[in-house]
Amino acid sequence: MAIEPTLTAAMDCSELERSVDAYLDGEFDARERGEADAHLADCDRCRALAEAQGRIRAAVRAKLREAMTPDSDAGHAPPALRARIEDALARSRRPLWRRLFAPVPLGALTACAAGALLVFATHGPDDGLVDDAVRSHHRGLPLEVMAASVGEGSIPAWFAGKLDFNPAPPHFHGDGVHVLGARLSHLRELPAAYIRYALPRGQAGLFIVDDPGGRFGGRGREVRVGPQVVHVVAARGYNVAFWRDNEIVYSLVSDLDEKALFELVRTAQAGR
C-alpha cells in the first residue's frame, strides 16, 4: 500500500486544507485541535485560509437567518420546517449550513442562500462516514488504552461511561489478527469508539457510532456477508467496509485488498 497509516503524526498544510471545515465546526478532539492550532500559529497561508472560511461561514449564516424571517421574499418554508432549521442554527456544536450544504461549493452558497430550504428538503443521507473514518485512521493518533495492559476482552468495558451507547465490537478471527488498543473518536459530529487491530500485514481501524437517525446511508459496492449487507469503498489507498446493525454503524478501515477485507468481516459474522 502506498499509504502507511502510522507515519502521519503532525498536521501539514494539505491535511489542514482538507479538514478546515471540521476544524472550524469544532469536530476535532482536543489533541487534533491542538495540532491544528500549532500548525496555524506557524503557517500564514493556512491561517489566512481558516480566517477566510470563517468569514464566509458568518456571511452564509447571516443570509440564512435573513431568508428565514417571516417577511422575507427569499424563504417560503413551511412553519414546522422553518422552526426546525432555526432550532438547529441555535446549536453551537455544528453550524446548520454545513449540515445542509456539504455537497455545494462554498462560493455558490452565498449566491444561492434563497434556495437553501429547497436543498435541505431534497438532500439525501450524509455519506461523510467513509471520508472521516479514513482521515482519522490515517492520522494514527495515539491510543488511550492498550490491549496489552488491560486484555482484549476489557476493551468494550473501557468505553463504559465515555459514550452514550455501549459499543459491542465484532470478534474478527484469523491468524495474526488481534486488538492493539482503543481511543475515543468522532465521525462527523457523532462520538465514536475506535479500536485498532494488528493484521498479518499492516493494521485496521474499526469505528463504531450510534446512528439512530439513519444519517449514514449506503455507498459503494454492496455485498451480503452472512446476515449483514456490507458496503465496500476504496478511499485514499484504503478499503473501507461498513455495515449497520439496527442503530449501530460499523466502519472498518484497512489496507487489505477487497477480497481479504470481506473475508475478515465474514469471520466476525460467522462467530455471532
Summarize the structure in short.
The chain is an alpha+beta fold and 272 residues long. The chain is built from eleven helices and eight strands. The protein has an eight-stranded antiparallel β-sheet.
Pick out its properties.
disordered N terminus; alpha+beta; single chain; 272 residues; 8-stranded antiparallel sheet
**Mean pLDDT score:** 76
- Helical percent range? 40-55%
Poorly predicted spans: 1-9, 92-126
* Percent strand: 15-25%
Helix segment tally:
11
In total, how many beta strands? 8
N-end to C-end Cα span: 31 Å
Major sheet characteristics: 8 strands, antiparallel
Strand order, sheet with most strands:
1-2-3-4-8-7-6-5
- The secondary structure category is alpha+beta
Gyration radius, to the nearest Å?
20 Å
Shape: globular
N to C succession of SSEs: HHHHHHHHEHHEEEEEEEH
Descriptive overview:
This protein is of the alpha+beta class and 272 residues long. Helices cover 41% and strands 21% of the residues. The protein is built from eleven helices and eight strands. It has helices spanning 13-24, 30-42, 44-67, 79-90, 96-101, 106-111, 116-122, 129-139, 147-150, 155-158, 258-270; strands at residues 145-146, 178-187, 190-198, 203-210, 221-225, 228-235, 238-245, 248-254. An eight-stranded antiparallel sheet has the order 1-2-3-4-8-7-6-5. Helix 1 packs parallel to helix 3 (44-67) and helix 2 (30-42) packs across helix 3 (44-67).
Topology:
Blueprint: H1 13-24, H2 30-42, H3 44-67, H4 79-90, H5 96-101, H6 106-111, H7 116-122, H8 129-139, E1 145-146, H9 147-150, H10 155-158, E2 178-187, E3 190-198, E4 203-210, E5 221-225, E6 228-235, E7 238-245, E8 248-254, H11 258-270
Antiparallel strand pairs: 1-2, 2-3, 3-4, 4-8, 5-6, 6-7, 7-8
Helix pairs in contact: 1-3, 2-3
